[in-house]
């Protein structure tokens, strides 16, 4: 028997998207790069002052520290203040069809010039080799949420952060995992563009693009298709001695 909690609620989506054309326009790459730089700047400060929590704390503890530091940067960094209204942790949002009303992405970045109903979603995961499941959890419990319409369904962009405690890199961990999936039929992560390194001198930063199979409610083809989504991946060192120094901006 289908429960009410899993039934689509088109009235919720209609109200949320009234007068808005979906999907939203893609964010400019320079804005996404600035977001990566500001997260790295916040991380560098935390690495200097809260290294123990980064190295041993829970994901929730690290998320709370990062939210606080990113919010503080709104008073310290003019470019960040121009681009961002606010940063929130665990802000409730709805799935693409309204079936789930209480999805809670780790961080939501509310951008200036964009409706506060549609923040940039940031999903965060610990990467720690001893558990043997870091890549699986990162993709299955993180990346996949952007592809199935749980997170970021209204737009064309999303962000994932990895808190790395085992010296893993995107090239050594994420790429092989996605490559294995790409060899499957069908590819469980629907990679349409292979990871592109952003050429950053300091950050472990890359972007992937993925097809999405869900459809917007109450729209006829082709307007019901969300199109692909670009996911930016930023992997941050959280192991003792590996924390990134603050980036000058």
Fill in the keyword field for this structure.
249 residues; alpha/beta; seven-stranded mixed sheet; 7 helices; 33% helix; 20% strand; globular; disordered C terminus
Brief synopsis:
The chain has a seven-stranded mixed sheet, sandwiched between helices.
Task: Tell me about this structure.
With about 250 residues, the protein is an alpha/beta fold. It is about 35% helix and about 20% strand. It is built from seven helices and seven strands. The chain has helices at about 10-15, 30-50, 50-55, 60-75, 80-85, 135-145, 170-180; strands spanning about 85-90, 105-110, 120-125, 155-165, 190-195, 205-210, 230-235. Strands 1-2-3-4-7-6-5 form a seven-stranded mixed β-sheet, sandwiched between helices. Helix 2 crosses helix 4 (about 60-75). The longest helix is centred in the first third of the chain and has 21 residues, at about 30-50.
SSE blueprint and pairings:
Elements: H1 10-16, H2 29-49, H3 51-56, H4 59-73, H5 78-83, E1 84-89, E2 107-111, E3 120-127, H6 134-147, E4 157-164, H7 170-182, E5 191-197, E6 204-210, E7 229-237
Parallel strand pairs: 3-4, 4-7
Antiparallel strand pairs: 1-2, 2-3, 5-6, 6-7
Low-confidence stretches: 243-249
Oligomer: single chain
* Helix percentage: 25-40%
Radius of gyration (Å): 18 Å
Structural class: alpha/beta
Coarse shape? globular
- Note the beta-strand portion: 15-25%
Neighbour order of strands in the largest sheet:
1-2-3-4-7-6-5
